[in-house]
Amino acid sequence: MKKLLLGLMVLAGTSAMATIVGTKHDLSSAAPAGQVKTNTGQVCVFCHTPHNAAAVAAQLIPLWNHTTTATATWQMYTNANVPVANLQGTVDASPTGASLACFSCHDGTLAVGAIGNIPNDVASITYTAGGNVNGSGLITGGNTLLGTDLRNDHPIAITYQDNLDTGLNAPATLTTARLFPTNATGNKVQCASCHDVHNSTFAPFLRGTMVGSALCRQCHNK
Q1: CB of 156 within 8 A of CB of 190?
Q2: pLDDT, tens digit, for every residue of 16-70?
Q3: Rounded CA gap, 92 and 95, in Å?
Q4: Alpha helix (H) ranges present in the chain?
Q5: Is residue 90 within 8 Å of residue 159, measured between CB atoms?
Q6: Residue stretches of the chain with pLDDT short of 70
Q7: pLDDT at 55
Q8: Which of 42, 141, 147, 151 has the fewest Cβ atoms nearer than 10 Å?
Q9: With 0-12 CB in 10 A as exposed, 13-18 as middle and 19+ as buried, what is 189?
């Protein structure tokens, strides 16, 4: 019985943390004051749908429902344009995987409500501007607009090469930050390596605390 209660407590704690309701990723009609609102009461639909999701080849995240950015030209953080970085890993020519899902809103070219499967409580998505999102649903400024020039942001879509860079910790030691698809040398650092869109415990949607640069030191043994 004690084991059962403990298990239920753990699940309850996880559920309480893993929510976007009431956060800046809540784009519904019940979104907090001061940020963008749409006319649907649904919350998850801006990224996910249980039916008629994107084709398998376009499944950036499970049951992906948002239109994927069509941006073709990116300026990535590489040794070519930031020589002092001395990167050991290989950087993709553009965001990939889960990072590309993030940029479907955060490059500022598509509305936050540009989705494939419209929720059944509305005929189309409309917006009440708020925060850094305008009346057309586009992210227009602030730290949320990353654009397409990523040279001033932490490298993403880059291989994690602790076997080449002595300043990096072994993937097996990572407990908060994560690599994609799994924590292993040569796998990718993506936006979701540091951010968890479902968890607002550590702003801005970080996987862990920045006190003492703890999240940074997950990967960097400085």
Answers
A1: yes
A2: 346 899 999 999 999 999 999 999 999 999 999 999 999 888 889 999 999 999 8
A3: 7
A4: 2-17, 97-106, 216-219
A5: yes
A6: 1-18, 84
A7: 87
A8: 141
A9: buried
- CA dist 50 and 189 (Å) reads 28
What are the structure tokens assigned to 191, written together?
């936006």
Closest CA to 116 of 106, 128, 125: 125
Residues 151 and 81: beta-carbon distance below 8 Å = yes
Contacts of the segment 173-177: beta carbons below 8 A, 24+ positions apart: 174/218, 174/219, 175/218, 176/207, 176/208, 176/214, 176/215, 176/218, 177/207, 177/208, 177/215, 177/218, 177/219
Dmax over CA atoms of the chain, in Å, equals 60
Q: Which amino acid is at 153?
A: D
Q: Report the alpha-carbon distance of residue 156 to residue 28 in Å, rounded.
A: 29
**Can you tell me the distance from the alpha carbon of 62 to that of 65, in angstroms, rounded to the nearest whole number?**
9
| 3-class secondary structure, 128 | strand
At 38 the three-state DSSP class reads strand
The predicted pLDDT at position 18 comes to: 64
- The pLDDT score that the predictor gives to residue 145 is 96
Cα→Cα distances 132→136, 139, 199, Å: 11, 6, 20
